[in-house]
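Long-time lurker. I teach an intro course on protein structure, and each term I like to show students one example going from raw sequence to a predicted 3D structure in token notation. This year I'd like something fresh instead of my usual example. Would anyone be willing to generate the tokens for the chain below so I can use it in lecture? Attribution to the forum is fine with me.
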Amino acid sequence: MVRVSMRFSLITILVQRPDFVSFRNICFVNTRYGQVYANAHVMPMLTANISTNFRGNLIADAKIQVKSAKYTMVGEAVSHSRTDISVRDVKVITDEPLERDGTNVGASPTETMMAALVGCTNNVATRIAHHKKLNFEIQTIECDVEFDRRGVILAEPISVPFPNITITINVKTDATPEQLAEVEEMLPIYCPVSKVFREAGSNVVEKWNVID
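-- Reply from a regular --
Happy to contribute to a lecture. Here you go:
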């Protein structure tokens, strides 16, 4: 249920989600077509059937509709081991170390996967904390990985290349243990990279250290 109070052509919208924080946002209402359009930074579009209660407040049953993002990348095979990948206006280089006949100018593809997990952990955890209005600043994130290499050396096919992943998050915060526990609980739910590993069968463990 979405409840809105109207002022001219703008409304303030409060969305209750059981698995996330409630958030308020300024958005436009189109009563002719019964739709509510929210700020794109929070909700690209929210559609609703709008009615009024006996106090004259707008009430809407709503469903959030978010368009999927589409990525386009182009990889240039510089050598048998090095690939320069263009995405947006930046480049990512993957390579192999010298002992694996690479030129060692970038992380390996599998290391890049883990780097993505570290980066996504930082981004999503901080976003969750900010939604909860917590004083929260991640200092470092450590990632320890068990990599079953039988597949990449063509020894035999395996179903779970990374059976165990441990992430240690060192953070400065004055959040209570209960507030930090909420961030801990929500991180694996909303971090897309973490979800990919978990759905693939990896055992992902997150450890949190509050530092001074």
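Some talking points for your students: The longest strand covers residues 136-146. The helical segments are 109-131, 177-190, 192-199.
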